[in-house]
Amino acid sequence: MAKRTKKRGINFVAILFALVLGACAGFACLTYFTLPETEELYVGEELFYSQNETSVSADPIAFNNEQFSVHFLELGNKYTGDCTYIKFGDVDILIDCGSKSNSVATVSNYLNQYVTDNTLEYVIVTHAHTDHYAGFAATKNSIFDLYDCPFIIDFGAGTNKSSTDKTYANYIKNRDKEINNLNAEYFDASTVEKGTPKIIKINAHLQFEILYNDFAATHSASSENDYSVCTLFTFDNKQFLFTGDLENEKGGEEKLVENNKSIQNLESIELFKAGHHGSKTSTSDILLKNIHPKRVCVCCCAGSSEYTKEINNQFPTKAFIDRVTKYTTEIYVTTLCVDYKDNQFSSFNGNIVVFATLNVEKVNVVCSHDSTPLTQTDWYLNRAWGTKEN
């Protein structure tokens, strides 16, 4: 009898163990098959801050209806990415939203300080790299979910992106849903024809031009970067240029100048957003000597080893800085990498705001953390240029 009781006890333990093991396996499968189709899990509405608790947002600046402002946003993490917000009066424009899907909480928190009608009148997605479009591709609470976007401009069909890429597929799904639900206007920037740029006049004081991009038009680029949507904004006769990640290794920037009269031999533009986060392959002399920028803003996590351990080639690169400083020393950078491996980052200049006022010549720059230009900072002056990180 004692042996029989013991056997029953062993069977009970075995059955209980099997049930627990089965439940764990079922939960694991459920979790796997219900993950969002992005590179990040959905993170809700929490905000992300640097490891030293420096806030990635700041008190909003009050703009009146005669002021045009360009905001380069920090994205709440250690990764390089682009997000540019433009405002004039009640018109709100967003160019890109990187770097990860969890950046949406940080970006939307910033936008909600200025967007009063839940509408982004124009959305421009420059190219199919997640550090530029991840915020539009999130499965839950993407930019398209949070805001009405009645006019969407993107890189079109001329990319090398595989239709099996889940994040890219999510972007296309979210974009098309927004177009269908709002009956939104959609423009494929790769359809711009040489000699006939697409000009969008917003009002009497503001317009922007979608520039002809030879690589995008011919669908011949080997890199996603060279499909970038390039735009020239004109406000009150002041000009602001955005070229995404267009590079010049194979002549992208050179062709941009060659094929667009509006940026040939400009006397001087007020602002240029650095090409490809201040890489050594963009913001070339051929472009700079035509646009003569008064100031350059860089969207990156400065000194990050995300892509390379070679210090000279980490964003913003030494070659980029050397080229730009021939024309201007007003270079501003959003974020600073403190220790990439330990996930430590901080604000460099922080959120950078460049703004102009109707009938006023001076253009102003205000930064949420520190308004010191790059080449005057201790980080730049003390950097061990020419060495590798450990």
Structure description:
This protein has two domains: 1-34; 48-382, Ribonuclease Z/Hydroxyacylglutathione hydrolase-like (Metallo-beta-lactamase, Chain A, 4-Layer Sandwich). Strands 6-5-4-3-2-1-15-16 form an eight-stranded mixed sheet, with no helix packed on it. Strands 7-8-9-10-11-12-13-14 form an eight-stranded mixed sheet, with no helix packed on it. It has helices at residues 2-33, 103-111, 130-137, 143-146, 166-182, 214-218, 252-259, 285-291, 318-324, 378-382; strands spanning 67-72, 84-88, 91-95, 122-125, 151-154, 185-188, 198-201, 206-210, 231-235, 238-242, 271-273, 296-302, 331-339, 344-347, 352-357, 363-367. It contains ten helices and 16 strands. Residues 1-10, 12-17 and 19-57 have low confidence and may be disordered. The protein has 390 residues and is an alpha/beta fold. Helix 3 (130-137) packs across helix 5. Helices cover 26% and strands 21% of the residues.
How are the elements arranged and paired?
Blueprint: H1 2-33, E1 67-72, E2 84-88, E3 91-95, H2 103-111, E4 122-125, H3 130-137, H4 143-146, E5 151-154, H5 166-182, E6 185-188, E7 198-201, E8 206-210, H6 214-218, E9 231-235, E10 238-242, H7 252-259, E11 271-273, H8 285-291, E12 296-302, H9 318-324, E13 331-339, E14 344-347, E15 352-357, E16 363-367, H10 378-382
Parallel strand pairs: 3-4, 4-5, 5-6, 10-11, 11-12, 12-13
Antiparallel strand pairs: 1-2, 1-15, 2-3, 7-8, 8-9, 9-10, 13-14, 15-16
Helix pairs in contact: 3-5
